């Protein structure tokens, strides 16, 4: 099976172009005429709605209900835009993507949601569309209605010209800005995932310190305290020697746990020697033989380098624990402005995002930085997992480019 998560969607935004206008009344011409005649009643409704919302919202701004009323008005404007896009799609053949919904996920309280609604560019642009379209709708209604009785032979050409202006207005003001707003909404949503992931990592570090190294150091302090008392009492015998020996062993274990914990936060080898050496170190600790190949012309930004390291580290842990593989490989290389990672193993396969192996967390972490995560793991194996990250040179980051 293959599962793929893309950090951004592709917007189409293309229109179904009608055939050239001619001295004949085909279905495209009749649809355009219907659209132009319907412009006036639709514009009156939209104009009245927007003026009412703006007047009421502005007039009540100093009260408690002013801003919430304006926010609700902007949400309603989104629905007007949806109706206008549907009308343009049916009568004019203009096909534009619906804007993304407001990214409420991860938002805190009422004020945060209110501010998100108030700064909604989709709602404001729809309001602007309704305000500026009324005078144009009066023109199109008057010209089209008059032409039906006076300029009948050339009405197809007139209707086409007027309808093309409407097409341009819909694309300019009611489309999702070539995907920019959609991408912003996704990044806003992904920010909540990153915050949750960081909080979980901090809780894990706290738990490891409390249950591991801290507990050992407490036991060490107690043991050394007892040994000190016996030495002061002149009982420096085999018992004291055994206690000191035990304390020495606890020190070594505590140091090892602290080293492991530090490696989990950010390994020193990654900072000092880069991704190639750090991944080789991870591969050497894997219970399955791993071949690591890295072809990198330089070092990416520290954040990207860290995500790449922890992605490979977690994938190799999965190989050790779940795959039943006999061999594995890690390949890392740069392709244009992307950092690509492939982790392969000859195990039993069946890996999935919802398989309880942390794949979903990896996908979220990569998606939060405009990355890509692909799983190709048929039952019976082999498994090939591809991760893709944006490349930024470390020097560019240091210079603030």
Short description:
With 401 residues, this protein is an alpha+beta fold. Helices cover 63% and strands 10% of the residues. Mean pLDDT is 78; it is low at 1-15 and 397-401.
Can you describe what's shown?
The chain has three domains: 9-175, no CATH class; 193-265; 268-398, Histidine kinase-like ATPase, C-terminal domain (Heat Shock Protein 90, 2-Layer Sandwich), CATH 3.30.565.10. The protein has a six-stranded mixed β-sheet with strand order 1-5-6-4-3-2. The protein contains twelve helices and six strands. The longest helix has 53 residues, at 180-232. α2 (66-91) crosses α4, α4 runs antiparallel to α5 (155-174) and α10 (302-323) runs antiparallel to α11 (359-367). The protein has helices spanning 27-59, 66-91, 110-118, 121-149, 155-174, 180-232, 238-265, 268-273, 275-285, 302-323, 359-367, 394-398; strands at 2-6, 290-295, 328-335, 338-345, 372-376, 383-390. With 401 residues, it is α+β, with helices and mostly antiparallel strands. Residues 1-15 and 397-401 have low confidence and may be disordered.
